[in-house]
Amino acid sequence: DSGVTQTPKHLITATGQRVTLRCSPRSGDLSVYWYQQSLDQGLQFLIQYYNGEERAKGNILERFSAQQFPDLHSELNLSSLELGDSALYFCASSEWVDDSPLHFGNGTRLTVT
Amino acid sequence: QQQVKQSPQSLIVQKGGISIINCAYENTAFDYFPWYQQFPGKGPALLIAIRPDVSEKKEGRFTISFNKSAKQFSLHIMDSQPGDSATYFCAASNTGNQFYFGTGTSLTVIP
Predict the structure, then answer these.
(1) Which of A8, A48, A54 is nearest to A32 (CA)?
(2) What is the dihedral of CA A48, A52, A54, A56, to 10 degrees?
(3) 8 Å CB contact of A43 and B34
(4) What pLDDT does B1 receive?
(5) Are B91 and B108 contacting, i.e. CB atoms less than 8 angstroms apart?
(6) For the purposes of burial, counting CB atoms within 10 Å of the CB of B3, is it exposed (0-12), middle (13-18) or buried (19 or more)?
(7) Rounded to a whole number, what is the distance in Å from the CA of A64 to chain B's nearest CA?
(8) Best mutation target, A55, A102, A103, A106, to test chain B (most B CBs within 10 A)
(9) Which of A38, A88, B74, B97 is least surrounded by CB atoms within 10 angstroms?
């Protein structure tokens, strides 16, 4: 158990809808990351937060947004969903900023129909 | 542009054999190189990691070999077991803890 909690585990929704994925980092971890893993693809970095502030952005679509709250949990909001957004979304956390390993949750599987 | 290139995409090894997965990078600013293991339905889990000041790190049956001049690193799994069947990702990070992942290798160990 990595200590990173993601909810929900599964989400099925229709195109055009909006969903929110939630992540609670490991106790003591200040950085939160979001990754997208599509079928047969690797881990695509979406966004990184550190202690409530956005630190880095990757291939995150404008329809997607995220935030990290004062209690350090994070939410990833996906709107105007398209079929191609169906994927596994992973949250990871790390203790510090530099040279800290990532600890991943078990992901949220999003299916857009 | 893929910052970390990983090969092979898939690998089949007999039980007891050696599994070797290779990764290459271009950015010399990378200073931390972890390997992650992912089982179906689970998130990637840190397996072993190395920093560029050493050429090899061993933990049990898992060894990372690192060649700084060639900008390559590899994972060796000795005495591979069916329980090692999983997807393996290499990664590299730099200042700011931005991680770049390889595309993954699906390892199957045949009993």
Answers:
(1) A48
(2) -30
(3) no
(4) 66
(5) no
(6) middle
(7) 19
(8) A102
(9) A38
Q: What is the pLDDT of residues B63-92, one digit of tens each?
A: 999 999 999 999 999 999 999 999 999 999
- Tell me the shortest Cα–Cα distance from B17 to chain A, in angstroms: 26
Q: Is A1 on the interface with B (CB under 8 A)?
A: no
pLDDT digits (tens, 9 = 90+) for A69-112: 999 999 999 999 999 999 999 999 998 767 788 999 999 999 99
pLDDT of residue B50: 94
pLDDT tens per residue across span A37-53: 987 678 899 999 999 99
Whose CA is closest to B87, among B24, B8, B16, B14?
Answer: B8
- CB < 8 Å to B52, chain A: none
Which residues are within 8 A (CB) of B5 and not within 5 positions of it... i.e. 6 or more apart?
B23, B24, B25, B102, B103
Within 8 A by CB and 6+ apart from B73, the residues are B22, B23, B25, B33, B50, B64, B65, B66, B67, B90
User: pLDDT value at position B84?
Assistant: 98
Q: What is the dihedral sign for C-alpha A7, A76, B40, B17?
A: negative
Residue B91 pairs in a beta bridge with B101
To the nearest whole Å, the CA of A82 is away from the closest chain B CA by: 23
Q: How does the average pLDDT of chain B come out, rounded?
A: 94
Q: Do B102 and A42 touch (CB under 8 A)?
A: yes
